[in-house]
Task: structure prediction
Amino acid sequence: MDEELSLQEIERDCLLCRECPLCEGRHNVVFGVGNEHAELMLVGEGPGEQEDLQGEPFVGPAGQLLDDMLELIDLRRDQIYICNIVKCRPPRNRDPLSQEQDACRHWLDAQIARVQPKVLVCLGRIAATALISEDFKITRQHGQWFPVNGIAMTAIYHPSALLRDPGKRPETFVDLRSIRAKARELTELYH
Result:
């Protein structure tokens, strides 16, 4: 994929994607949203029902919680870039299969190459196993930092997991403070 393509051009091509069976049930391709030059990028696993209907990542209940989480660390959506591993909703919000993730991977790689974030936060286990390490354990390794291809990466619990298990929220608050500290260190977001 040509690195000179803009995010809009990459998205235009992605909207036509039929590389895996997920395209059969989608209402919309959910490409990504936010600042094309963001120094901080968030990557989730895949669109849910509301995201599929609206064509934008993290707009349902998990997205509302994500907005609250960002506000806790003095960030807004327009300052960052948000996308998912897969761009089409898996049936009944199941985890995306490895072949679905593989089929979508070049879109994600193109987004990361175009945005060139300095800090990347994986939202949940699926994103962490795809981007940090295939044997990543979210319960043990959330909040830890890993250098991956010149990008500081970490993973936190997915907002939907926090909706299901509010007991994980105190740990996530600690992780959010770590993200703010890393962003202060490596980006201009807080200057």
Summary: Residues 7-186 form a domain with the Uracil-DNA Glycosylase, subunit E fold (CATH 3.40.470.10).
